[in-house]
Predict the structure.
Amino acid sequence: MDLFLIGWNNYFASQCPNGRFGRVALASRERFTIWTERGEIEATVSGKLRHDLTTWPYVGDWVVLRDDSVIVDVLPRRTELVRKQPGKEVRQQVLAANIDVLFVVTGLDADYNPRRLERYLVLAHESRARPVVLLNKADLCSDPAASIRETRTIALGIPVIAVSALEGWGLDALPDFLQKGETAALIGSSGAGKSTIVNRLLNDERQRTTAVRESDNRGRHTTTRRELILMPEGWLLMDLPGLRELQLWADPERIDQAFDDVATLAAQCRFRDCSHRHEPGCAVRAANLDEGRLESYYKLQRELDYLNRQADPHLARETRRRWNAIEKAVRRHPKR
Ligand SMILES: Nc1nc2c(ncn2[C@@H]2O[C@H](COP(=O)(O)OP(=O)(O)OP(=O)(O)O)[C@@H](O)[C@H]2O)c(=O)[nH]1
Ligand SMILES: [Mg+2]
Ligand SMILES: [Zn+2]
């Protein structure tokens, strides 16, 4: 395999001048399928990695191999999809690594939820991948153009396209968002049609899909593993299991990135620490923004502030330090 065609670039080359590398194409518990120059191999992780959860490999990672069978190191990621691990524990969970384009998929049926979409966009900003919103199941919608317009008021500056994976239209636009060797991932709730999109793009029933429950329109969590798929045009696509819940694990600054409209107004408020609730001279209140959007802005802020206070300060510092290192490296080594 030509490593450049599966995502290798100067950024990774600069991290690790010697050794044998590969990219994690599939991970199931302790077993990893790795793509290398000499083809596909199966590998496990070394004892050292096993004892350090911060270096566990995920799909999309570039890893260093020993004896073509043991993963001994994980190269620093260019981008990283993370959320808060579901449940009480306050820790992050990596969903995927080294994604260039994040297709946020939502169905234009009962799945459509602007508030959830805002959440996904904060995740996207935190990841550093380029987000694209896919409004799938447009065949079920009487006015897809209106849905696109509505979504654009939430996904500011982000491409929004309506597609129908079932009828096979709209998807021609997807490869245009990627260059050769780049990696995209499909994220969204179960039943949004992520795997159907993969199948349609490949023109092959490669991924299993299941109808949503009739009673409540929810998906059945059909896809259970994360895997990289080589696309005919020379890019890579990752199908991900549908998320049951998306609790954020992000720098609170990302909220202002995802809510650029609110943030821009907030900069004009009379008081710097304006809560945009009852202060005089509040530019946010004066603008008569959509009430739901404003509530969502407060809610995400409260959530991340709370998380920040809960998270182990040491861990938070580590995360920050790691990001600073990545940022520096990305600046020093533009892609190719
Ligand atoms: N009407 C319509 N149905 C679709 C479309 N795309 C997918 N579906 C249907 O939606 C159901 C769920 O699709 P999947 O592809 O399994 O959804 P998924 O997002 O991969 O779900 P998980 O793997 O559970 O996360 C299937 O019955 C699909 O046929 C579409 O564009 N229009
Ligand atoms: Mg699926
Ligand atoms: Zn204000």
Notes: DSSP finds ten helices and 13 strands in the chain. The mean pLDDT is 90.
